[in-house]
Design goal:
3 helices, alpha+beta, 2 strands, 71 residues, Rossmann fold, two-stranded parallel ribbon
Length: 71
């Protein structure tokens, strides 16, 4: 029980930030989540502007799929 409490306290939420939010931060978050067993990452953008609501860049999705990641 004590170890569970320590693990909960030490759990990190990581935020990867890129400019447009159409690939880079999601790539970083996917790799981080795959390598970390107890921590969680999300991606975000600082200057989304014209990319708001758009899907991830096709090339990013394709490359990550080839590497075994589903974005």
């Amino acid at each position: 029980m004590r170890q569970e409490i320590i693990d909960t306290i030490l759990k990190l939420n990581i935020l990867f930030i890129c400019k447009a939010n159409v690939g880079r931060s999601q790539i970083a978050a996917a790799f981080f989540d795959a390598l970390s067993k107890k921590n969680k990452a999300i991606g975000a953008g600082t200057n989304v502007g014209e990319n708001a609501g758009k899907p991830l860049h096709e090339f990013v999705v394709k490359c990550m799929a080839e590497a075994g990641y589903n974005l």
